[in-house]
Specification:
There is one protein chain. With 89 residues, the protein is mainly α. It has one domain. Helix content is 79%, strand content 0%. It is built from 3 helices and no strands. The protein starts with a helix and ends with a helix.
C-alpha cells in the first residue's frame, strides 16, 4: 500500500505543484486587475491549496498507519484566521 500511495501522491503532486505555482504567480501579478483575480483565479488557487493539504494529510495518515503508530501534535491555532479563510471560500 505504501508504494502505491507514494506513486499516486507523486503523480498527483507534480501537476498540482505546476497549477499551484501558476495560480500563485497570477495572484501576485500586479498587472492583473483585481476583479479578474477575484472572479477567475482566487477560487482555483484556494482549491489547489486545499487539494495539496488533503494529499499531504492522506500520505501522513497512511504512513502513520503503516507503522502502527499514531502521532498527535498539539499546536496553538488562530481560530479567527481559520474562520475568515473558510468564509472566503
Amino acid at each position: 500500500m505504501s508504494n502505491f500511495l507514494s506513486s499516486v501522491s507523486h503523480e498527483t503532486r507534480t501537476p498540482l505543484n505546476a497549477i499551484s505555482t501558476t495560480l500563485d504567480l497570477a495572484m501576485r501579478d500586479e498587472t492583473l486587475v483585481n476583479d479578474i483575480k477575484e472572479k477567475y483565479i482566487k477560487l482555483p488557487y484556494i482549491n489547489a491549496q486545499l487539494q495539496t493539504y488533503f494529499i499531504n494529510d492522506l500520505v501522513d495518515y497512511v504512513e502513520t498507519n503503516s507503522q502502527n503508530k499514531i502521532a498527535l501534535t498539539l499546536e496553538v491555532i488562530d481560530i479567527e484566521d481559520i474562520i475568515k479563510h473558510v468564509l472566503e471560500l
